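Holo model, magnesium ion. Inputs:
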Amino acid sequence: MDTTAGKQAGNKETMTVATSVQYLKGVGPARAEVFGKLGVQTVGDLLEYFPRDWVFAPGPIKIAQMQAEEAATIIGLVESVDFQSYRRPPIFEAIVSDETGVCRIVWFNGGYLRNQIRLGQVIVASGKPNVFKHQLQLTNPKFMMVDPQQTAEPDKHFSGGIYPASGRLSSRQIKQIILPVLDHLDELVDEFYDPSVLKENHLIGRKDAFAWIHMPPDEQKLDAAKRRLRYDELFLMQLGLGLRRYRTQHSASATPCLFTDEIDSRIRRRFPFLLTDDQNACIAEIAEDMGRTTPMNRLLQGDVGSGKTVVALYAALLAIAHKTQVAIMAPTEILASQHFLSIERYLKDSQVRRVLITGGLAGKKRDELLARIKQGEMDIVVGTVALLQKDIEFRHLGLVVIDEQHKFGVHQRAELRKDSAPHCLVMTATPIPRTLAMTAFGDLDVSVIKQCPPGRGQVVTRWVDPRNRRQAYEFIRERLRAKKQAYFVYPRISSVEETSKEIAAATDAWQDLSEKVFPEFRVALLHGQMPSAEKQRIMTGFRKGTIDVLVSTVVVEVGVDVPNATIMVIEAADRFGLAQLHQLRGRIGRGESKSYCLLFAETDNEAARSRLEVMAKTNDGFEIAEQDLRIRGPGELFSARQHGLPDLKIANIVDDFDLLVVARRHAFEVVSRDPTLAQPEHRNIRRALLAKFGNSLGLADVA
Ligand code: ADP
Ligand code: MG
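Output:
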């Protein structure tokens, strides 16, 4: 920054939120650099550098009024000082007095105070008095030396925020830099809302909120300040999401696929069962979306096996009924072919032209196929995200179905929006906690399948001590004899060099299980680095029942549907995350018989133990997701940045959920009334939003 700007900034009249902290009193280039490392560049950043804790020191009282164990601040004249270096620990002692009495103050290891506290000076000290030799004394109090003329508000000095400090900038130094800035709040902080809105939502003014968060007069005002600032943060986030959603909806138009009774019954005839109430409700929501020219942007969530594929297929057939094409994308080839197989089952003898694109497809065959797709001679194209996004052109793409399985994918969604405007349905088997549904996915509509289709056997989950392995094996042998099938899963180890270990572990186990433990059964190995064809062969064998036991790395988690597999053993289960364990377990319990999930683990790790306990306790994916959020904290699951949102500095989407709901409603209401934020009453909000999101929302052209 140039020096003219600096001089202006030093001038009180022109301090703005954009002023660099470098030009504040007590800062300078070196400290500005330290601040930079703390994420603070401007005065605006500094105002949002919130304390991590707060101290309330009481106002000063007379020495005679002090009570044991009651926090007090006193102002006294230093009558004597003494450093007792022979003590262990060494003690620095001062006797101070006012017109009502005398008080002893001691500091352990206080040698350094010899230069600070001198005879005849006035000291302000704040702490909790204790009784020592029948007298009240202060031990290790906070203190400052004052000019006797200037003892006006000493409590202010001790009270206030404790800031997240760095080695080169203490909390106290940060506070000394922030406090003078608070005198400029009139110029620095703009109110966002009408008085009526403030009143309705029980919010204090924004200026007060900034003043009190840094220097709260009391606990109540601090709480009010926190609430206001959290509200604003959540409100701005929701407003950003609301605007993003508005823009996607209005930037392109999709082919409306109107729903008629005739189409509906034609589609339903394809399903050999009645749809569940949840499936019907989701279909109604999807059909309504697809009837509009606004592209659908909907997330379909439901546990594995809850029947999402059927719902997605309904949407696909609705799009095809309107002469448009459908792309169905899955994260892996196994899953893509799984989807294709189940689609085949439902569409047997139908006119719908469908094809599975695989990585192996090449040469002339591939060219011909792509040409047919381009000419609109294919209705449904199934493949991996990678394959379908690369170079496939459609004649008239009406619907994209993306199966995210258990990722919270946002990228695919964004990429798809570039040139065409198909309706978009994202499926996920990861139950998304309510909080995330409103934040990370705040610009998506959400449909949920909660109940599973009828005729599903119970799934019993046990956490097994590996020492009881043999008993467990005998139990499994009985099931296998009854012609049931079993999965044995070995942990994912994510780093590259560990992948081979993971495979080695599964391979060793496979040898052991097939030769020693279950020699009378057919045991096969499956892992991610096998050739595609080999994987397919083994999966088919397991599906057909020619393989009894499938030993695998976690590749099995993606889309295997074998109702006769009723046993799952997860080795070293403590090394899996909760969401992943739940996903894996979703592979069993697909048929009518009772299923068993055995988690082999021995661990003292707190978090791992609570994960295993949660698994043994519940099968409800939503509850598991909420527990996961609780065990891990929102930070790990939800990185705002990763979703193109500004980081949250004071609000927490889990703890402040109630506030989030209110702020969301408010924000979405603003978007619907003033989608360009052009009205004068929204000027301040608009400016704050631009500062937070930058151009990521394309707000610049909102002017
Ligand atoms: P998801 O995609 O959510 O994992 P699927 O759609 O693959 O679930 O359904 C899992 C199994 O349940 C499939 O075998 C499917 O045929 C069956 N299914 C789906 N809906 C119903 C229903 N309403 N009634 C009975 N079975 C159903
Ligand atoms: Mg499925």
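DSSP finds 26 helices and 23 strands in the chain. Residues 219-251 form the longest helix (33 residues).
Archived with the compound record.
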